[in-house]
Fold this protein.
Amino acid sequence: MFGPVEDYPRDLAEFEGRFSTEDACRRYLVQLRWPEGFRCPRCGHVKAWPVRSIWFQCAACAHQTSVTAGTIFQDTQPPLSTWFRAMWWVTNQKTGVSALGLQRALGLRSYKTAWAWLHKLRRAMVRPGRDRLTGRVEVDETYLGGTHPGRRGRQTETKALVAVAVEVERRQLGRIRLRRLPDASGPSLLQFVQDAVERGSLVHTDGWVGYDPLRRHGFKHRLTFLEGQSKSPSQLMPHVHQVVSLLKRWLLGTHHGAVTHEHLDYYLDEFTFRFNRRRSRSRGKLFFRLVQQAVAVDPAPYESLVKYARFPS
Ligand SMILES: [Zn+2]
């Protein structure tokens, strides 16, 4: 799905040298959005005329579009170079980003703007329709935002219930998916697993009744009953618990645990984005991925969402 050329700045000096003008930023977006050349979003034609260096007019159907149309950059006031600085900054903070941190780094006047930007970038970190986890996947839920564990199956005012799925390959952690859930009921958990995990995969959970529907919906289901075991849950399902403890440490360290429910979704997506690219050595490459995903628009969002909700036949 991605173009072959991975072209990105290696350090801040290179970044600043390359992306100081609107034109340079726009050219980079064009390169990432249409790696094989322009393609008309309306008719698929590959030839276009430039209009005032911002617009492309399709040579076949005369549809006018820009490289930012239909992306998170569409209809935004700030210059692209400011967006680029935001994306560079977000991907270069190893421990993650708060809205206040972004506001300071970019010298934005309003906290609200910084917060809104993070939420826009979040859409580029986690896109609907991405690949599901496969193979062997451990799934569990955890409560975040409180010191006392909540009772399963209900949401408390101070704690958020978060579902966690992690691929396990040869005892190594693979990719993860995280999502805040309204409750730990069967329908909520099934929806999460269906969205996060490829049907036919082996899903490993504890004996919570909420996971009972999995087998009926095409998953192989391995159960580990925690009650009456001499081993602790973290010994019985070590991988998912490892992810949970890394997530909690990250939230505590970067955000001092002060994450409200309305911010939590952003942080979960950011953590996932970083975690799934944790082996990538270059921060510039993370920047590249974020920009790439920010312009990777779906040509038919509704259709793909419908397809996404259905099982492959
Ligand atoms: Zn066209």
